[in-house]
What we know:
- Helix content is 21%, strand content 26%.
- The chain has 114 residues and is α+β, with helices and mostly antiparallel strands.
- It has a 5-stranded mixed β-sheet with strand order 2-1-5-3-4, covered by helices on one side.
- β1 (6-16) and β2 form a beta hairpin.
- It starts with 5 loop residues before the first strand and ends in a 19-residue tail after the last helix.
- The mean pLDDT is 81.
Amino acid sequence: MDEGGRLSVCVVYSPQPRVVQEYPLHLPQAATVLDALRCSGVLEQLDDGLKPEWLGVWGRRAALTQQLREGDRVEIYRPLRVDPKVARRERFKKQGARTAGLFASQRSNAKSGY
């Protein structure tokens, strides 16, 4: 907390893969998640609006009315396009059973699993 009773927080948003926008902010002591989003200008960038399940503070879901603390990181998540389990399964199919995982690099004439 800097002098004057203001909080230092950061709003983080990733509009597309491998692109991260960070907005460091100084807000009044009683600021909420919604206050941080308004001050950062991120709300104007969201085309689909903002759904409550897309918000978090340090990786945990947060409500718009949640009060912020010093050093908090407000995160806006994008919805997943593919289920991670399905994506992993597809990658494994593409690589093949012999070229993935524990048994990928075996010595010639070695026992299976060593």
